Structure formats: structure tokens, C-alpha cells
């Protein structure tokens, strides 16, 4: 019998059919026609000025409060180099985005996990941790969190801001999924609530595509200058050609209709995943996100992700190790399911295979 078609629930990648290639081709031509002297040359480490101005207008901030980078993840690395001494405490949600954990560890941070609940970080646990540690910052993903899918409530956002102010740390708000809301009402971004204690990082990797590596940060101008200095010492200037293309794309008004297309493409994929889980694995009580790329679940007692991954690979189902999202151990029964890059048919088939593996391990 032929091997089953592989189904990947490994990384949170956008659907290839979502890439707006034709519009990017127009934007690329315009970028080279209008800005070649700037975008083919070395330039400022803070990025292509027209794109910074475009974002400044969108977020209602001064242009000095905007930095454009190569993807957003490296902003965490630059922040670490600019701010952290070995052993400095940084708080993260538990679980959190695994690549940020790796980056913070590389920077020598002492990473402290604050348990995440369905409506955001456990505030009691945060207050408890603040009695012991003094973090430089708390890395949070308030909207459609990676890996859990959770969104932080308004009340918790306000409490985070109060605690940041009273305990003298800042919130690193990572929000690449924020505009991908399929249902429900948006809560204010942390940076809207408290620009004095928030550094926002985001990117258009999930909206346009990761290939252009377009990311940005918004926040205190002095802090951004320090980040820009590390960026300059790292790569002289960011990929200005990509910045120019993304700028022409955004200035042409292509972004909003693209987001609408993504909502129409991805919302049925989330619905298909949840319907398949309700049918085949209801006992895992999956999270029910209102947007983004991920949902998560807890495997039944006695079944762990390591064994499930090994058995799943044999039936062509590839899964990420749940333990990778936890800063200090745990996650043995945690499973993240990124659903955006799979068709509803493959999602149903993938969940069916997962249920088969879980039930076989239980038997
Ligand atoms: C929460 C979060 N932050 C950052 C990134 C990295 O994105 P970028 O492509 O902008 O570096 C990802 C990618 O999956 C992510 O999920």
C-alpha cells in the first residue's frame, strides 16, 4: 500500500495559496521605479523611511517611534543585545512561542514562565513572581497566542499595564496575528492602552508572506535607537528592497483586501479543525480561538506528545513537540495544531489520524 499523504501540523506557516504574488509583482516594479537609488543602496538601520512613515500614520505615532527590520523575531535578539545582561530575568507566558524562548536563552536571559489561562496570563502567579524577580520585560502575545490560541481579556490587559508601571518593567507585545480575527470583538492592543510601557513587535509574515522578511517595532524612540545600533552592527542596514516592495504594496491599498481574503480562507479551516476534534477527540477539550493560526489541546492522561509524535509519524502525521513551548519543563501532554496551511479535507484527515494514534496508545 502507498504511504499516506503527509499532513504537517508542525510549524505555523501561511497557506501558499494566500500569497498575493501578482500584487507584489506590481509593487516590486513600482518600488524599483520610484525608489531604486534608496532601496538598492545601504541605508538607515531603522529601515526604509516611507514605510516607517506609513506605519507611523497607521499607529498614530511619530516616525522616530517606528523601526522596520528583517522579520520580527530578530527584534527580540537585538533587544536582548541592547538591554540584557546575563542572568537578567525576562517573563514569558507559559506556554509561549518556542523560537522566542531560544532567542532569549541565547541572549543569556533567565526566563521565568507565567502560566497562561484561557483569558491571558495568570495574574496571581504574575504578582507572586514579581515578589521574587524583577524582570526587564514580559514577552506577551495577547491576540491568538502562539501556541495556545488564547486571547487576553480587557481586564487582564489593564492589569498587565498597571503591574508594568508599578513594578518598572515593560511589556513586549508580539502581535503578528492580531488582524486575523474570525469572530468576536477585538480588545485594545496593549500599545493603545499604555504606549509608555509597551514595545510592540509585529510583522507582515502572516499577512503578505514570510519571504520578504518584513517586521517592525513600535515604541520608545530611545529604545528603538539602541535596537537600531545593534541592527547596524549586525547587518548594516535591513533588506531595503523588501521594505520598498512592502511599502508600495501597502501604499497601493492592497493590505486590507488581502486580510479580508485571509479571513475568508482561514475561518473555515479553524471551523473544520474544531468540528473534527469535536467528532474524533472531544475529550481533549481543545481551545476555541477567535482568530490566528493555532489551537491547542491537552492529551488524555497517560498519553504524552513524545509517544504520539512517534506513532503519528508512522501514519504520515507530523506534529511538534509540546515541550518546546514551555520555559522550565512541562508540556508533556500539550499539543499545538496550526491549521491555516491545510485544506479542510486534510484537516479532517489529520485529526482522524491523530485520534487513531491517541486511542491506540490509550488501549
Ligand atoms: C508569535 C510570533 N512572533 C514572531 C514570529 C516570527 O515572525 P517573523 O517572520 O516576523 O520573524 C512568529 C512566527 O511564527 C510568531 O508566531
In short:
Helix content is 44%, strand content 16%. It has 363 residues and is an alpha/beta fold. It has helices at residues 21-39, 49-59, 73-83, 98-106, 123-132, 154-167, 190-193, 221-235, 240-251, 255-280, 305-314, 344-362; strands at residues 7-9, 66-70, 89-94, 110-117, 120-121, 137-140, 170-174, 198-203, 214-218, 294-298, 317-319, 334-338.
Helix-strand topology string: EHHEHEHEEHEHEHEEHHHEHEEH
Output mean pLDDT. 97
Count of beta strands: 12
Q: Which percent bin holds the helix content?
A: 40-55%
Order the strands across the largest sheet as they lie in space: 2-9-8-7-6-3-4-5
| Structural shape | globular
Commentary on this structure:
With 363 residues, the protein is of the alpha/beta class. Strand 6, helix 6 and strand 7 form a beta-alpha-beta unit. The relative contact order is 0.18. Bound molecules: pyridoxal-5'-phosphate (PLP). The site of pyridoxal-5'-phosphate (PLP) has 13 residues, from loops.
Amino acid at each position: 500500500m502507498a504511504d499516506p499523504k503527509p499532513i504537517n501540523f508542525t510549524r505555523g506557516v501561511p497557506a501558499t495559496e494566500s500569497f498575493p504574488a501578482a500584487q507584489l509583482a506590481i509593487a516590486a516594479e513600482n518600488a524599483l521605479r520610484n525608489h531604486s537609488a534608496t532601496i538598492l543602496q545601504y541605508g538607515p538601520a531603522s529601515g526604509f523611511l516611507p514605510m516607517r512613515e506609513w506605519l507611523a500614520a497607521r499607529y498614530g505615532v511619530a516616525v522616530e517611534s517606528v523601526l522596520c527590520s528583517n522579520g520580527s523575531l530578530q527584534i527580540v535578539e537585538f533587544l536582548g543585545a541592547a538591554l540584557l545582561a546575563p542572568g537578567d530575568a525576562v517573563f514569558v507566558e507559559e506556554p509561549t512561542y518556542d523560537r522566542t524562548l531560544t532567542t532569549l536563552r541565547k541572549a543569556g536571559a533567565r526566563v521565568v514562565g507565567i502560566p497562561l489561562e484561557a483569558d491571558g496570563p495568570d495574574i496571581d502567579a504574575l504578582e507572586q513572581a514579581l515578589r521574587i524577580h524583577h524582570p526587564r520585560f514580559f514577552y506577551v502575545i495577547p491576540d491568538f497566542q502562539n501556541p495556545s490560541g488564547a486571547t487576553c481579556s480587557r481586564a487582564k490587559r489593564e492589569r498587565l499595564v498597571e503591574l508594568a508601571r508599578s513594578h518598572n518593567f515593560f511589556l513586549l507585545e508580539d502581535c503578528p496575528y492580531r488582524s486575523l480575527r474570525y469572530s468576536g470583538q477585538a480588545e485594545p492592543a496593549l500599545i493603545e492602552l499604555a504606549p509608555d510601557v509597551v514595545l510592540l513587535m509585529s510583522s507582515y509574515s502572516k499577512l503578505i508572506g514570510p519571504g520578504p522578511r518584513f517586521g517592525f517595532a513600535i515604541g520608545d524612540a530611545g529604545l528603538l535607537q539602541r535596537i537600531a545600533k545593534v541592527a547596524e552592527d549586525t547587518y548594516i542596514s535591513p533588506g531595503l528592497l523588501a521594505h520598498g516592495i512592502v511599502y508600495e504594496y501597502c501604499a497601493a491599498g492592497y493590505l486590507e483586501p488581502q486580510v479580508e481574503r485571509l479571513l475568508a480562507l482561514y475561518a473555515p479551516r479553524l471551523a473544520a479543525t474544531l468540528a473534527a476534534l469535536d467528532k474524533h477527540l472531544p475529550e481533549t477539550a481543545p481551545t476555541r480561538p477567535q482568530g490566528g493560526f493555532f489551537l491547542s489541546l491537552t492529551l488524555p492522561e497517560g498519553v504524552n506528545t513524545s509517544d504520539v509524535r512517534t506513532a503519528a509519524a508512522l501514519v504520515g502525521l507530523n506534529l511538534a513537540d509540546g515541550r518546546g513551548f514551555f520555559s522550565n519543563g512541562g508540556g508533556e501532554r500539550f499539543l499545538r495544531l496550526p491549521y491555516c496551511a491545510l485544506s479542510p479535507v486534510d484537516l479532517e484527515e489529520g485529526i482522524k489520524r491523530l485520534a487513531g494514534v491517541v486511542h491506540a496508545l490509550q488501549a
